[in-house]
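Final paragraph of the annual report: two paired records, presented back to back.
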Amino acid sequence: MAETKREIERKYEATARTKLPDLARVAGVASAVDRGVTELDAVYYDTPDLRLAADSLTLRRRTGGDDEGWHLKFPVASGIRDEIRAPLSESLPKPLAGLIRSRTRTEDVVPVVRLRSSRSVRHLVDGAGALLAEVSVDTVHAERLPKGPDTSWTEIEVELADDADPEILDAVEKRLKKAGIDASTSSSKVARALAETGTPAPEVPDESPGNGNGDGDDTAGERVLAYVREQVEALVALDPAVRRDLPDSVHQMRVACRRLRSAFKSYRKVLDRTATDPLGDELKWLAGELGFARDQEVLHERLRARLDEIPRTLALGPVRARLRIWNHAHSGGARRKALAALDSARHLALLDALDALLADPPLLKAAHDAPEPVLAAAVLKDYDRLATRVDHALALHPGHDRDLAMHEARKAAKRARYAAEAARPSLGKPAKRFAKRVKAVQSLLGDHQDSVVARGALRDLGVQAHAAGESAFTWGLLHGQEEAAGAAREREFPEVWAKASAPELRAALTP
């Protein structure tokens, strides 16, 4: 079973002659306890073209020390990484293989570097003997695999202890700098080993508009592709986050799918739809597979909040137990369904197809034009589509048909908002204001749709309670509250829409 540890550390340059200063004199440190020398032997794995290193991920199998085993590290911020550990085994454990699959795809990982380190360790402890930080002086010998050059160096690592105050790292660094010891310029041992053995990790190309990688000038095509690339990178990065069940990861991955689909639809005069429509269909599939878990989570939280708001005297029967049973029945397979989608060949084929589109984009004539008029026209077209759907919804009487029409308007609002966000680098503040106003429309319509879905769930809960011989009163009460909430959103809708449809907002976007 893999476990995760948040690693917060800083690295410093050293030589064989470097002497550590007296770290017991660091503020807050009572003593520096010598923990002896440990011999470590680590083999680092990557694809032959170093895809993990390109994204600053490291995968190793290490023996020696008290944490020997497989380690996979994901960057979180400068000097902060999440280390996922698995027990020592001959082959790569399946949980770790899944976490790198969005990068490796169908490629096998192979040994690329072997690091043998002699680690001299000191523990910095406070007056009560609690560990504050671990300071290690590593003498490293690196060998490029299978049969490549080798290199050696010495470095110092200072790693924060679990639950310790990060300010101790600043205090230690101040002491080290006074002793003439400077921060390392390398982000990790494997990155340094790759660089010093002649094959550094690939650099991520600068794909920003106007950098010379596209038409040579800032064009509509470059702006749209920059946005598409950003969403594709998000899909790849969020894959392991979803597998790790990190907060909001499923939602963010679905948003990346929707933004890509919207970009392909909104900017059909820039990217050939014969190439993007099939991708849009696959993105819709992926978002749908991920959606079961997220939609059930949102619905359950809404119903639980409703229960929390009513007086206890109105909660008749085992309502909370009934809600738990219902939620378990509906969410049990949702996560398995999402993970199955991520593990599927269909998902990997989608990622490969998106990479292929970025490598050889199907640009149309408008893609070579200046971005402002092309992108503004696309945003306004989506705005007109939204306005048509809103007018249709407002013309209907309250009820099922209006509920459906408002849901369709919500989807149109989302598409118009994403189009404006993609155009913001070109259109500036007008696109920002437009996206903000349309987001308000989207949010209101989203809350309305949530009330519609909640009413259906509450009816089911009432039926189940009645069939089990329980009182259905509370579920009917909550159903009435959701009806009132939906009606309130409908009353607010014209005013919110009026702000988004203000003539000056449209005029600001008009080329």
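The closing record of the year follows.
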Amino acid sequence: MKPFLFVTDLDHTLVGDDRALEELNGELDRHRKTYGTKIVYATGRSLTLYEQLATEKALLNPDALITSVGTEIYFNSNYETSDTEWSKKLSVGWNRDLIAETARKFAELIPQQTSEQRPFKVSYLLKEEAATEILPQLKYSLENLNIKFNLIYSGGKDLDILPFDADKGLAVKYLQHKWKLDAEKTVVCGDSGNDIALFSVGEE
């Protein structure tokens, strides 16, 4: 057996069946202690909502925590400061204030709660029946401003506007490089739109 990188979404993926979670935790914890496997949670939740979940469910302390749809990375349960190298990478071409100003022109975009508005993430609720019309219009408006951005719509309701180089998959590639664990030694798990990028971590 060799160490591998285990990456999982939380809601409706790792979390949902308490008995299965307990069994998986035991296996992962043993493998980490014996072989040095790395455990990573990659969630759309902000750090605030992750910490709330951690008080409700029996979660192992991860070796790295990816929050806010890949825009923040924390190591070794040190949640005081997100990884500065990753933040610096995301800041290139990013203009949060201008994005928020542009999005305010669309009445269908309802801002998510304050905890989910992050330095590199602007988040809204958007009804599925309106998304087909609104998303192309929003994309066109942002492109005309020469902003580098990434639109992620998931669950038929959650819209996140991120820096161009930000998503869960790119965050995992950053960790693969940092820990020298390649795609063949990576396992990813997810269930919704913001998890799609996880399944590209094996691509060059």
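The radius of gyration is 17 Å. This concludes the annual technical report; the extension proposal builds directly on these records.
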